[in-house]
Amino acid sequence: MDKLKSTIDSTDQQATETANLIASNETQIKSEQTPIVTDPEIINQVILNKLNTRIYPRGELIMPCVPSMLEHYMERLKVLFQTLGRPFSGDELIQLRELLARRLKEGYEASPHSNLVLRYEPAKAPQTGLACNLSTVVSSVAEQYKTWVDNRQPPLFGSHPDAKVMATVAQLKADPAKTPILDVGAGTGRNTLPLARLGYLVHAIELTPEFVQQIQATAEAEGLPVIVTQGNILDPMVRMRPAHYKMAVVAEVISHFRDADQLRLLMAKMCDVIRSGGLLLFNTFLAVDGYEPDAAVREMSQIAWSTIFTRAELASAMEDLPLELISDDPVFEYEKQHLPPEAWPPTGWFNNWATGRDLFPLAEQQPPMELRWILCKRL
Questions:
Q1: DSSP letter at 236?
Q2: Average pLDDT over residues 309-328
Q3: Which residues, at least 6 apart from 234, have a Cβ–Cβ distance to it below 8 Å?
Q4: N or C: which end of the chain has fewer CB within 10 A?
C-alpha cells in the first residue's frame, strides 16, 4: 500500500509540472496575441467593477409579522439585494420564501406586535457575498405600553374621563357607595379615578404593571374606593364576584383582541359578573355594512391596535347571552360633542385612531370602519 501511494504521488507531481509548463506556454502565447486595453471606457468599467467588490453593504430591515404580506416582503427584499449588487439566485429565493413564511406565521401567532429583523453584512473570509440573519422579536401589549410610559408625556390617554362613561353612570341613579363598577383595561385610571371620586366602588383590571402602580398610588394618596387587579380579563385566573357589578366599562380594550372567539369570551364573562338590570358599556371597531375585511386588513388592524369586527361577528359574540342592546354611537362624534372644549381631542392620536384613519390613512374619503360605543343591559 505504501509503494502504491508513493507511485501515485510521484505521478501526480509529474502531471502537475507538465500542466504548469503548458499553462506557462499558453500565457506567453496569449500575451503575444491579446492586445493591451487602453480604451478609457473599458478601463473605467473594469475599475468600477473592481470598486464594487470593495463596497460592503451592512444594514438592518425591520418588518412587522404580517403573514398576508409575504409576497410584498419578497419583492422588497429582491429589490433591496439587487440594489446592493447581491441578487438572490433562484434556489435562494425559494429558501427565503419558505423561511420568511414560517417566521411571519410564528411571529404573528405569538403577538401582533412581533417584528422580523433582517440583518446583513459582508461574509467573513474566505467566503464571499453577504451573510444574512433573520430573527423574530416578540413584544406584548404590556411591553408596548411600557414604552409609552418611558417615552411619552402624560396624560397618555387624555385628561378627562370618557364622556359616554360619565353619561352612562348618571343613568344608574343609585347610591354610589352601594354601586360597584368594573373598569376593564383601566389604563392609567382615566375613568376609574373620576368614578371613584364620585364615591363609586371601582374595581379596575389592568394588564400593564406600570399603569397598575399609577392607579394604586393615586387611589391611596386620595383615599379613593378603588381595588386594582393586574391581569388580562381573558385569563381564566382573573376572577370577579358573580352578579356583583352594577356597570362594567370596557373602553379601548377590544381593539387589542385577536379574534371573534375572544370577543365572545369577554361578552360571556361580563354577563357572569354584572347584576341583572346592570349595564355593559364597551367600544369596538366595526366595519361598515357591506364591507368584509380580508386577511391582510384583519392582520394589519391588530398591528394598528384597531382590531376590526363585522356587525355579524358582534351579533354572534352576543348570541344567546342575556344582553339587550340599548344604544350604538360613533365614538368620535359622541366624545367631540360631549367632552369640554379643553379636553378635545383627548390625545394627538385619538382623531385618526377613532375614525379608522390610523389603519386606513385616507385624506379625503371615509374609512370602511370606525370605533363605536355599544351600550347593553344585562337582562
A1: T
A2: 98
A3: 262, 265, 266, 269
A4: N
Distance, in Å, from the CA atom of 220 to the CA atom of 276, rounded to the nearest integer, reads 31
Which residue's entry shows cell 373620576? Answer: 194
What does the alpha-carbon distance between residue 187 and residue 183 come to, in Å, rounded to a whole number?
Answer: 9
Nearest partner of 81 among 69, 93, 65, judged by Cα = 93
Cell numbers standing for residue 148: 409609552
Note whether 254 and 284 are within 8 A (CB): yes
**Percent of the chain predicted with pLDDT > 90:** 83
- Between the CA of residue 46 and those of 40, 50, 52, 53, what are the distances in Å? 10, 6, 10, 11
Helices (H), the chain: 2-33, 40-52, 70-83, 90-110, 141-151, 163-170, 192-197, 209-222, 260-273, 295-303, 311-318, 331-338, 350-354
Pairing of the two strands 226-230 and 245-250: unpaired
Residues with Cβ within 8 Å of 355's Cβ and at least 6 positions away in sequence, in order, are 332, 366, 367, 370, 371
- Alpha-carbon distance 264 to 214, whole Å? 30
CA-to-CA separations, 312 to 97, 100, 210, 282, in angstroms, rounded: 35, 33, 36, 17
DSSP state of 173: -
pTM for this entry: 0.86
Helix (H, G, I), strand (E, B) or coil at 233: coil
Give the pLDDT of residue 27.
53
Q: How far is the C-alpha of 170 from the C-alpha of 194, rounded, in Å? A: 13
